[in-house]
Amino acid sequence: MLRIPNAKAIDPSTIAGDTHHIVDIPAPVLNADRALHALLKRVAFSRHLNPTNIVEARRAFKRTASPPPFEYKPLADAPALLRELDTMQPPRDHPAGELVGQNIDGVHRLVSALHLRTPEAFDALNKGAGWYDGLAAAHHEYPRGAPAGPLDVSSKTMQQRLTDAFSLRGMNDWRVVADEVMSARVLVDGAKRIVRVNPKSSFRRRDLTRLVVHEIDVHARRASNGAHQSLLCFQTGLPGSLATEEGLAMVAEEVSGSASPGALARQAEVVRAIHLARTAGFRDLFNHLSQRVSSGLAWGICLRVKRGLAKPGEAGVYAKDSVYLTGRNRVRAWLDDGGDINHMYVGKVSIDHPVAHWIEQGWVTPQPVPAVWT
Predict the structure, then answer these.
(1) Are 22 and 173 in contact (CB under 8 A)?
(2) Helix axes 263-277, 295-306, angle to 10 degrees
(3) Which pTM was predicted?
């Protein structure tokens, strides 16, 4: 049984207001942080990462022996974005400058990958983010669980459920929008305060609760809370926070009783696929996965780990999804060891960050924790 010994509800009325007046962070660091945030609000990178022709590419893949002919929305202004990121670099002799600088470096690698779309560019992105660190989980087996149930909930119903959940939580500055250029069914954009739902997707009854917990009570709430801190990168994600972000969302599903049966087994298959995709093309990867899972799931996993690449039929991988399983296991262990869940809701931080120290220094202030943890 997961123990959350320090979980408590925080009354928003007791929280200090806007903390952006804090002056112990140098102005060049704050300026770089705000410049990066403005760029992230301006550019929707997911629309350049995910193929624009997923349905057509899948049909072509079924008809021929060729890899799927993915098409992408070009990131035409990539050279200008790279120059812009170069001019943002803050002084790194201050801890906050190092945090912001690492975030800028990560976005720089992402822009380069989406510009070049080569295995080498994506390899640099994966290594810089530490996404290969989670591949050790490929050696573990997890129970597959009972059948998940029919996909009989429409995307419009899911959009309305998310909209209603935001309203109930008083998070009225968030919007839920339809977006077809997605490999996922639901995506949170913290910089823009938008939740994107793929209108071509269907959902299970369990998802009506599960995705509220996952997308709103973790992703959106941590982004909203981070917007109250002195650095805006607490809203969009500190360096190294992604594994905690996704791991926390998986644990929240388990705590709420809404987790999908066999979720860990599916994530283990994703990790194995990432490991294989470093040296295998789409077709070989699909054939291997089809021996272990359904053809539909095999396609979905291949799409996730080969998206962004100009030539998915060749070796190369987008390894971001390795963080789910590793993050979940680390977050559970951290909570069992007495980790303070309140620290995870100052913004998009990692369990490895010294949040208690930052609170003492005045960099961050405590923020509301969703009822799922209390």
Answers:
(1) no
(2) 50
(3) 0.91
